[in-house]
């Protein structure tokens, strides 16, 4: 196969700018490598609320499910923060993940030598770090019922969500993590809060059973999430693959981005048992810099590389794209988030960074 249907979801904030950069890069890659991507755009998040009053319209679900793969920028913004829950951009993102069955989110935090000084941590701490966070994506306190804000007997409000995992949900994410770990260096750390939470005790028991039974060669350890947050900063090289629930994974992956130097460098792959995946940077819509051509498009471009590798079986082209990103960093081009004072590098905007990558693929 040398022609693929790709649905692009530009979303909100910096989303449209970084998508423009990614599009120019993908088109250059297609020219160089002799395959075709039929790109079509669909609405999600605030853009979809404004257009059709629905953060994840049925037409978008259809456009995603009928594609070979989906590339998503980011959603959200101040404009919609006061909306009722069902009309929030974030609700659209969660609906997309749930309705497409994207229960596994792979978030690689790989430190590039060119960016060691972009991290706020010491060189010897971050140099050579290569961590893969396997985050469960369709369960946990994000989706648990009951949820809401009610009024108690004293007339005071109570807000609540339910942290809940079924055995089946834990088994399937443990299998993904076991598989990922066995293709890396065989070390897997499961992160939970089993000292306090019943849901975490089940998590720990089920992960242990799945890995012991199905991945006997994987070296499994367990860590409490508070300690894991600290250990990631203290000595991140102790970790290879980590597996954790939805909310712990959300937080730990943003934390891991600062090992790499910027949230603007972290890609991700959201995948299910079958059907197209969604490839999305870990960052949000960065409303503080939206529309200013300051955003780093590399997290989205690296997400496109994950799309090529995982959904289109184009591993060679994914390698070319990742190498092109390193080449522009070698050339000394930096967006503001990865620029250091006196580093001798050239400050560039989002569009110029995209063009530079497109030039070297
Ligand atoms: P954020 O990730 O948007 O931004 C956090 C900080 O990182 C900001 O200072 C921002 O400027 C910077 N940053 C993020 N991406 C960058 C990039 N590519 N280049 C340069 N700098 C970058 O998180 P936030 O400010 O907490 O949230 C803003 C909005 O994004 C909220 O509405 C939130 O719900 C939403 N959000 C969406 C996603 C998503 O679409 N997957 C993820 C996280 C947050
Ligand atoms: C992410 C984001 C989302 C999440 C929000 C916007 C719903 O933070 O993709 O990391 O929490 O999953
Ligand atoms: Mn997040």
Automatic annotation (TrEMBL):
Keyword Cell wall biogenesis/degradation: no
Enzyme class: oxidoreductase
Manner of cofactor binding, per the entry note: Binds 1 Mg(2+) or Mn(2+) ion per subunit.
GO annotation (BP), single: L-leucine biosynthetic process
Keyword NAD in annotation: yes
GO cellular component terms, semicolon-separated: cytosol
Compartments where found: Cytoplasm
Family matches, as InterPro entries: IsoCit/isopropylmalate_DH_CS (IPR019818), IsoPropMal-DH-like_dom (IPR024084), Isopropylmalate_DH (IPR004429)
Entry EC no(s): 1.1.1.85
Coiled-coil blocks: none
Major localization listed first in the record, in broad terms: cytoplasm
Pathway(s) annotated for this protein in UniProt: Amino-acid biosynthesis; L-leucine biosynthesis; L-leucine from 3-methyl-2-oxobutanoate: step 3/4
Keyword annotations from UniProtKB, A to Z: Amino-acid biosynthesis, Branched-chain amino acid biosynthesis, Cytoplasm, Leucine biosynthesis, Magnesium, Metal-binding, NAD, Oxidoreductase, Signal
Residue ranges constituting the Isopropylmalate dehydrogenase-like domain according to the UniProt record: 5-357
Entry cofactors: Mn(2+); Mg(2+)
Catalytic reaction annotation: (2R,3S)-3-isopropylmalate + NAD(+) = 4-methyl-2-oxopentanoate + CO2 + NADH
A Pfam family recorded for this sequence: Iso_dh
Single GO MF annotation: 3-isopropylmalate dehydrogenase activity
Role, per record: Catalyzes the oxidation of 3-carboxy-2-hydroxy-4-methylpentanoate (3-isopropylmalate) to 3-carboxy-4-methyl-2-oxopentanoate. The product decarboxylates to 4-methyl-2 oxopentanoate.
Family in the record: Belongs to the isocitrate and isopropylmalate dehydrogenases family. LeuB type 1 subfamily.
Quaternary data: Homodimer.
Matches recorded under NCBIfam families: leuB
Protein name: 3-isopropylmalate dehydrogenase
The organism of origin for this protein: Thalassiosira oceanica
């Amino acid at each position: 196969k040398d022609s693929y249907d790709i649905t692009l979801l530009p979303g909100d904030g910096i989303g449209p700018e970084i998508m423009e950069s990614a599009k120019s890069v993908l088109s250059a890659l297609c020219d160089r490598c002799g395959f075709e991507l039929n790109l079509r755009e669909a609405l999600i998040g605030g853009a979809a609320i404004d257009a059709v009053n629905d953060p994840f319209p049925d037409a978008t679900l259809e456009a995603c499910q009928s594609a070979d793969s989906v590339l998503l920028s980011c959603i959200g913004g101040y404009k919609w923060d006061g909306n009722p829950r069902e009309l929030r951009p974030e609700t659209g993102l969660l609906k997309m993940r749930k309705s497409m069955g994207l229960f596994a989110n792979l978030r690689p935090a790989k430190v590039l030598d060119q960016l060691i000084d972009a991290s706020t941590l010491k060189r010897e701490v971050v140099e050579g770090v290569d961590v893969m966070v396997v985050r469960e994506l369709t369960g946990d306190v994000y989706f648990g019922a009951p949820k809401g804000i009610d009024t108690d007997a004293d007339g005071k409000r109570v807000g609540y969500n339910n942290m809940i995992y079924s055995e089946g949900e834990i088994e399937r994410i443990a299998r993904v993590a076991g598989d990922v770990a066995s293709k890396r260096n065989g070390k897997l750390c499961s992160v939970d809060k089993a000292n306090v939470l019943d849901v975490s005790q089940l998590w720990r028991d089920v992960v242990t059973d799945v890995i012991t039974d199905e991945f006997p060669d994987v070296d499994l350890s367990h860590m409490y999430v508070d300690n894991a947050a600290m250990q990631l900063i203290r000595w991140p090289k102790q970790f290879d693959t980590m597996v954790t629930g939805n909310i712990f994974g959300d937080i730990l992956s943003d934390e891991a981005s600062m090992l790499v130097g910027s949230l603007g460098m972290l890609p991700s792959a959201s995948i299910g048992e079958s059907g197209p995946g969604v490839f999305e940077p870990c960052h949000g819509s960065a409303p503080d810099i939206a529309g200013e051509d300051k955003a780093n498009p590399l997290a989205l471009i690296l997400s496109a590389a994950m799309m090529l590798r995982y959904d289109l079986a184009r591993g060679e082209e994914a390698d070319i794209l990742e190498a092109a990103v390193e080449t522009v960093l070698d050339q000394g081009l930096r967006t503001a988030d990865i620029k250091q004072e006196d580093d001798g590098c050239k400050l560039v905007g989002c569009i110029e960074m995209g063009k530079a990558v497109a030039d070297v693929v």
